[in-house]
Amino acid sequence: MSMTHVETRHFVLKDRLLDDFFLVQLEALDNSFFPNPWSHRAWEDFVKNPSNYYLVLALAEGRQTGGEVFPHDSAEGEVLVGYSLFLLSEPESLAHLLKIVVRPSWRQMGLGKRMIHEGIQTLLGKEFERIFLEVEENNIDAVNLYQTLGFRRLHYSKHFYGPGRHAVIMDNKIKP
């Protein structure tokens, strides 16, 4: 499989309860890419809470990528490629995109965009009207992606991610 082309039929987007194998992979990705990763308990609490919504992007077993080796021992023969997490506030019809990540070897292929688009469609079906998020100001690729998906800059928060690490607060009114 070429690194510049993704055959989407080999991917599965899920919003189901995750097994322990996927929780371990979520934790590993979180530990690798976020400065303040969640504990195992926090992950368990998040996926069990009905006020949360998440998508996992899984690669069907037997597919390979640019030298990256994935374990293939989940019950359904899939491995985690990325995920997105939303905290939901039904009374406000508001969703907060807490985290989104795609494994480095799978970036620049539209998978993050696909996860956000799928999340938006699902949230619309649940009568949500708005999504907001925070993104580190120097994460230009992410800021650009969010803007192409209709997010607009609302606010700037100094030191949001730590000393000298500022955030751009963005939102998207998904329901016309």
Q: Could you tell me the mean pLDDT?
A: 80
Q: In CATH, what is the class? A: Alpha Beta
**Fraction in beta strands:** 25-35%
Task: List the uncertain runs.
Answer: 1-11, 62-75
Identify the CATH architecture.
3-Layer(aba) Sandwich
* Class from helix and strand fractions: alpha+beta
Helical residues, percent: 25-40%
- Written as H for each helix and E for each strand, in order along the chain, the element string is EHHEEEHEHEE
The CATH topology turns out to be: Aminopeptidase
Tell me the number of helical segments per DSSP (H or I, 4 or more residues long).
4
> What's the main sheet like?
7 strands, mixed
Please tally the β strands and state the result: 7
Numbering strands along the chain, what is their spatial order in the largest sheet?
A: 1-2-3-4-5-7-6
Shape: globular
- Radius of gyration over all CA atoms, rounded: 16 Å
Give the tally of structural domains.
1
* C-alpha end-to-end distance: 39 Å
CATH homology superfamily: Gcn5-related N-acetyltransferase (GNAT)
